[in-house]
Design brief:
171 residues; single chain; three-stranded antiparallel sheet; mainly beta
Length: 171
C-alpha cells in the first residue's frame, strides 16, 4: 500500500502494524491481530495478574483478579493493547483492556459458553464464566468454550451490567 507512513516489523513475523494514510485527509492506525484500548491500573506489587484475567477494582483503588467476592469488573488484563494510557508502574500496575477484543480466561463452571453469551466472574480467581445472574460483566463471548477446566476465548470487552438477557454499558 503506497499510503504507509510508518510500518512496524518484528523479526521473523513481518509487518505487525502501521500508521498510514486513509485515502482521504486522515490517517489510520492499524495492528495485525486482535487489539484493544487499555489503561495501566495500579495493583499490589505482590499479586500477579495473568494476561486474560478478569480484573476488578478494590475499595482501596487498586485492581486485582476478580472473584465472587471481588466482583467490581473494570476489564481484562491485556497482552496486546493497541492504545494504552496511564502510568506503567512495573510490578505495581497491569494493562487492563477496557474496550475491544481480548483473549480472556474462562471456565465452564457456569455452563458451556456460546458466542454472544455475557461473561461475568466465576469462583475461580481471574477466570470468567457464562453470566447466569444479574451483575457486572466483562463483555460478550465471541467464541464458544465447552472444555473442562480453564481456557481462553476472544471476548468483546465492554464492562457493564447484565440483567435478564439485557446488558447496559457503563457510562
Amino acid at each position: 500500500n503506497s499510503n504507509h507512513f510508518l510500518s512496524f516489523e518484528t523479526a521473523g513475523i513481518g509487518i505487525v502494524g502501521s500508521i498510514r494514510g486513509n485515502g482521504s485527509k486522515g490517517i489510520q492506525l492499524a495492528q495485525n491481530g486482535i487489539a484493544d484500548y487499555a489503561e495501566y491500573m495500579p495493583k499490589d506489587k505482590k499479586e500477579g495478574i495473568p494476561d486474560g484475567a478478569l480484573v476488578c477494582l478494590l475499595e482501596n483503588g487498586l485492581v486485582a483478579k476478580c472473584t465472587e467476592e471481588k466482583n467490581n469488573i473494570v476489564g481484562v488484563a491485556s497482552p496486546n493493547p493497541l492504545i494504552i494510557g496511564g502510568e506503567n508502574l512495573g510490578d505495581g500496575s497491569v494493562a487492563v483492556g477496557l474496550t475491544g477484543i481480548v483473549e480472556t480466561r474462562v471456565s465452564t463452571i457456569g455452563g458451556d459458553i456460546k458466542p454472544g453469551d455475557m461473561i461475568g466472574v466465576s469462583e475461580t480467581a481471574g477466570a470468567g464464566a457464562k453470566a447466569k445472574e444479574s451483575g457486572l460483566v466483562a463483555g460478550r463471548a465471541l467464541e464458544a468454550y465447552d472444555s473442562d477446566g480453564q481456557g481462553k476465548i476472544k471476548v468483546l470487552v465492554n464492562p457493564g451490567w447484565y440483567t435478564s438477557g439485557e446488558e447496559v454499558a457503563m457510562s
